[in-house]
Amino acid sequence: MLFISGYLALHGDGGLNVMSYFAILTLYLYIVSFSFGWSVAPWPAMAESVPNHLRSLTMALGMMSNWFFNILISKATPILLNAVPWGTFFIFGILTLAGVVWAMVLFPETGGYAIEDIHQLFEDVVKQSLHDNRWLLKRPPARKPKGLEDDTEAAKALAKKTAADNEKALQNLRYGMIISSALYAILRLILPPHKFPPTFWSSTIYVLTAIPTIVLYRYLHAAGTPKRDAAGTLISPGDDLSQPGLLDACWDVIYVTWGCQVGSSLFGEWFWWLYLSIPVFGGYKAYTSFISPMLGLRQGHPAAAASDPAAGTAGTTGAETTSKRQAKIQKRNEKFQAQQAKSGRR
C-alpha cells in the first residue's frame, strides 16, 4: 500500500514503466497476504478473546462492526480515489501498519491455553510496571493436553528434550539468517565482476524472497519457543520443530532461499531460477494430497478400489490398522480413567 502510494505521488501521469509493473506485483502480494491474514484472523480472535458466557454477544457485535466497516470502506474508497489517489493508499497502508503493531504488542498469544482460561488473559489486562517500564502480561498456567501423565519422569524428560532441541534449532536459524545475508553482500563485493550494490532486479528478487523467509522465521519462533515461568520452570516445550508436515516444509523453504541468495552471488543471477523449485514442489504436494484424491486419481480411492482388487486389499489393511489404533487409544483412555477413579477414592 505504501509503495503504491509513493508511486502514484511520483508517477501519477499513468505512464507505464518498470515501477508500475512492480506496483501491480505489490498489490497482488497484498491480496494474497490478506487472504490468509486479516481476512480470517479476526474470526477466531473474536471467538477466543472472551469467556463463554459473553461469546455469543461479542461475536454478534464483532461481525456487525466488521461488516459495517466493510460497507464504509467500499463507499468511501471511490470518493477518496477521485480526490487524492496516492493519499488513499497511504491511509490504508498506515492503518495496516497500526494493525500489525497492535496485534504484535497488545494482543496476547492464546495458543497453549484452554478455552476456559483465555478470558484471564484479558481480565488481568496488560499492566505497566512502575519500576522497570515494561509491559507485563499475567497469564494463567497453561493446561497440558488431556491424557498426559504429568507425574511421569518420561513425559518430563521428553518435554525437556523437545525444549532443548527447539532452542538449539532456533539459535541455528538466527545464525543462518545472519550468515546468509552477510554472504550475499560480501561475496558480491569481493568476487569479480563486482556486483555490489546489486542491480535493481537482483535487489527486488532478494527482497521478495526474503519476505517469506522472515514470515516463516517468525512462525517457527512463535511455534517452537519454549514457555517458562518467572522461576525458569518449563511450562510448555513448544511444537516439535523437527516433526514432518508443515513445519518441515517451512525449513525447506528457508534452506532453498538461503541457497539461492548465496548461489546468486557465487554463480550469477540465473541461480535464482532454482527458487521456482518451491512453488513447483508445492504444486506437486497439492496435487498428490488434495487434487488427486478429490478427483479419484489416487490408488486406494473408492473408485480405484472397485476396479483394482489390490487396491481393495490395501483399503482393508488400512481399515484394520485404523481399528488397531482406535483400540489402542481406547485402552489408554480406560487406563487413565481407572487411575483417576483410584486417585479420587483416595
Description:
The structure is a single chain. With 346 residues, this protein is mainly alpha-helical. The protein is built from 12 helices and 4 strands; from the N terminus they run ααααααββααββαααα. It has helices spanning 2-10, 18-35, 42-48, 55-83, 85-105, 118-123, 153-190, 200-224, 246-267, 277-295, 302-307, 309-345; strands spanning 126-128, 135-137, 227-228, 234-236. It has a two-stranded antiparallel sheet with strand order 1-2. A two-stranded antiparallel sheet has the order 3-4. β1 and β2 (135-137) form a beta hairpin. α1 (2-10) runs antiparallel to α5 (85-105) and α7 (153-190) runs antiparallel to α8 (200-224). It starts with a helix and ends with a helix.
